[in-house]
Amino acid sequence: MKKDHIQELKGFLIQKFLIILVFIAGSEALINLLYNRAVYPWLSTTMQINFFMPEITTGESFATLGKGILWILGHGIAAAIPYGLGRELAEFSDKWAGKYIVDQLMNQTAKMSGLEQKIYFLGVVVVSVLLVSGLLIPYILAAIGFSKLVAKRVAELEQVEKEKREEYEKRRNLLLSDVAHDLKTPMTTVTGYASALVDGKVEEENQQQEYLQVIYNKSMQMSGLITLLFEYVKLDSEGFKLKKSKSDIPEILRESVAALYTDFKKKDMEIEIDIPEISIYSVVDRIQFQRAITNLLNNAIKHNPPGTKTGITMKVNGDIIEIRVCDNGVLIPPETAKYVFDPFVMGDESRNSHGGSGLGLSIVQKIISMHGGTIQLQQDLQGEFKKAFVINMKIELEEEKNGISV
Asked: Which of 34, 131, 181, 297 has its C-alpha lying 20 to 30 A from 208's C-alpha?
């Protein structure tokens, strides 16, 4: 069972156990009230079993009851043991049970015949067993109820875990299918163009250069997909750990924009930057965090038309840093927006037309989550930008030269 399920089960057990304790305490209070107000007086007056008396506390009453049961059992066993052992056991029973219980029983049975004494003693035993059983009923019911609740909850958690495993297998198979598709499409083009060149079907030099350029572009597309897939699998692997260190977040953002400046320029896209000029530090994995920001910027370049205005902003609210990568380009359809951070959520047509893989945003979500932050998509915004990917994460702010302290 996974750690989160174990923690959930612990909380469930503690909650139900406290409820069981309340049930037992309430039941004991009601039973004691019933015994003291009704059962003990009835036994004393009607049945003439005088060692059950309402003025005696419950503890004293049941201590006497226990001694009485052992005294009866001791004498019964002693009668079946030959020689002096039986007599010694009977004497021990008399001594341990105490003179009170013996006197009570002797006084009650002094004028009875042998048959009446046997019936009386049998009645005492039966009543004793019933009284003890009455006190044990809450514990028995609580134990049965608690065990059923635990068994039911464990079964529910196992079912949830089973469904998650099945969903994981389904998603993994879909992932493999989509990877195969995205590799097959450019590979088919590369194979066809390469075959035409090898067979000498393309004689003009300009056309040969075009074919070679297509082969190169498709090869780079496949290489990019394989790289993204590697990063996705690596982040999802159990042994992977972030290599965190104190890093200047505004500097990482500026470096990410600078690395893609040529790509923005080629697509005639304007990039607006609103990043603090001062140093703001946080403990992050610099490489992975920069990869997340780069993926968001790449996403804006690939999935928006030329001339789209893009922006990246950073604000600090208390100990929370907010980073927004926004644009005024094409909105994401609602049916896709729900699953935009899942791998391969984009349709085949979208992947083919825009050159995307459907893994970039999934990698971003994993990296931000591993840093303890959140990322969400916001659309239909007011102002110059229509949509934004918004990162919120807690940071440690420190002062350095012209830095700030919060």
From this structure: 181
